[in-house]
Amino acid sequence: MANIRFEGGAAVKTDTRTYAFGGTWEADDVIRVQVGNKIKDVTGGSVTTATVVTTLAAAIVALSADDFPEMVGAESGFLATASTTTLTLTANKPGVPFICTLTPLEVTLGTADAQTIGGVGTATTGTVSVANAGSTVWDTAANWDGGVVPVAADAVFFDHYSGDVLYGLSNAGATLASLNFARSFTGLVGLPKVNNLGEEYPEYRTEYLTIDATLVRIGYGPGEGAGRIKLNNGSVQTAVTVDNTGTPVDEDLEAVLWKGTHASNTMTVRGDGSVGVAVFGGEVATLATLTVEGNSNVRCGLGTTLTTVTVNGGSVELNSNVTTLTVNDGTVTVNGTMTVGQLTINRGLVIYNSTGTLSGNTVVGENGSIDFGQGVGAVTVSNPIDSNNLNPVNDPDKRIVSLVVDYNGVTPLAGFGTNVRLTRANVA
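Below the sequence we write its predicted structure tokens.
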């Protein structure tokens, strides 16, 4: 085990890929060029491999900046160089990797018969001849104080550093002992959904720092904190603690975006933390326990599996089912069709916009309340609401199918005494 600190400062190298052409080509065979979701089909125009390669190189250099912002011609840095049987592509921007897929096809755009790129006749991203490197690249060894990229059982630290970590983010398979981001680290980790380096386009490279870690700690100590840390802890059991974060840099998103799928994952968010869990469509995450306190802002997306959630302060938005929800302070909003099992509100507010069932016991303390008035649609509350608060429920639109409240130790109406059950019913 080693303690390793990210220092940045590595020399920049330009990503370069080589593609080998072979087999037998026909004049109407097609090469599909794809970067992210952008596609360009080029006809080779010859039975001679060298001519096919030359034709493709010229076509790639001539690609439109609007359609292929990373391939905008040699005048802006991107190079496509042809030799007899190979094509070499050099990235437009040093230190920024690209992934270009070439696929040999028939004129009908069906599977190639005898022509090959990469020797296999199917899609290929080529062979890396010069690996992308630079101060924003996780897997550039020179960025680390020991000159070695972290490996299993290492403790990794980011502190007193303002540079970004944007590329080389796929590092699953070796579990770190811990991954630590001090509040004095103010750089960005991970890529936004939309690439904004020049022409905007959907990001196709790895967006999250994808790494296994037993412990993750974010935002400890003094400092302004980071405005974007995107972490994917995969299927390894992880305990995440977020003490504080910086101000989010991405509109309508939290500063820390996290996902991980182990059934026993835990997360504690406190201070001024801003955290989103599996917030993008199609993402999944699992938290056995989630604890939120302080002035934190936490949002759990549709793909989150939650078991026990305890809120001691702050603001929490739940877009997923939860087995046990305890609110000791703060505000919790439940959306969509999400269900809640056991719900206890000792202090604070639950805004129940969901049409999902409250299936367990619902207990509302003297300083707690649950508001159904901001949502739309019928709600089933399976058991009587147990409360020692005179006004535990706000349901002006009568969303609750059958509202029953057990008042314990308080008198809901003059002359009714204590320990009274009231059932709401419409009158003529």
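The longest strand covers residues 304-318.
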